[in-house]
Specification:
By secondary structure, the chain is of the alpha+beta class. It is built from four helices and seven strands.
């Protein structure tokens, strides 16, 4: 048993019309007499018949009529539907075993890579914003960050003020509502699914 998932993407962005014909024929060949998949549903004969009809329609399109194009599109949709049904059979029969799935000519979806702790953000800057009482924060891009967590607090002698957090999908953020004439501390962390945050160096700035 495995956890691989068969790809059922047969869209025109992945397969051109001729590419779909080639892929379908490859699947038909790989499933023929494949001992691991003794009873394909739909049958290989059904698949081959759909490929023949699609190829005939495809051959008429280049110098054909609009009706020929519509017919080709309809037969492509029918072939894709059949391939998806066959993919379900392969998925169930294979038990998610990647090698078995690939033996049929189908593709498997890429497994999402696990991203752990993100890098420490570099070059955090704090500059006066467009309005009074605002600060614009910017840092370098953090690889694999889905969003950024910016934090700020008023600078205090004891250094025990509570951090206030703002999030942004971009590596820059304007902080509003700050007190003019006060000095603040700022930091940022790249964020994703991993729970740990690696904070940047703290920068300080007076607010105008």
């Amino acid at each position: 048993m495995g956890n691989s998932k068969i790809s059922k993407d047969f869209s025109s962005t992945k397969f051109t019309d001729s590419g779909l014909s080639t892929k379908s024929s490859y699947i038909a060949d790989k499933l023929t007499d494949n001992a691991a998949f003794p009873s394909p549903k739909p049958t290989i004969a059904d698949l081959k018949a759909a490929i023949v009809l699609y190829n005939l329609a495809l051959g008429k399109v280049e110098y054909g009529t609009k009706e020929d194009t519509v017919n080709k599109n309809n037969l492509r949709a029918a072939l894709v539907a059949l391939l998806k049904e066959l993919a379900d059979y392969v998925q169930t029969t294979s038990g998610g075993d990647e090698a078995l799935i690939l033996s049929t000519g189908f593709d498997v979806n890429k497994k999402p890579s696990t991203v752990g702790e993100l890098d420490k953000p570099e070059n955090l800057t704090a500059k006066p914003g467009s309005n009074k009482g605002t600060i614009m924060l910017t840092c370098d891009v953090v690889d694999y960050a889905n969003f950024y967590e910016f934090e700020y607090r008023e600078l205090s002698p004891a250094g025990n003020a509570i951090w206030i957090q703002k999030t942004s999908t971009k590596r820059k953020l304007q902080i509003d509502g700050l007190t003019s004439g006060k000095q603040y501390e700022f930091r940022v962390a790249g964020a994703g699914s991993y729970p740990t945050r690696v904070w940047s160096e703290i920068v300080t700035s007076f607010v105008l």
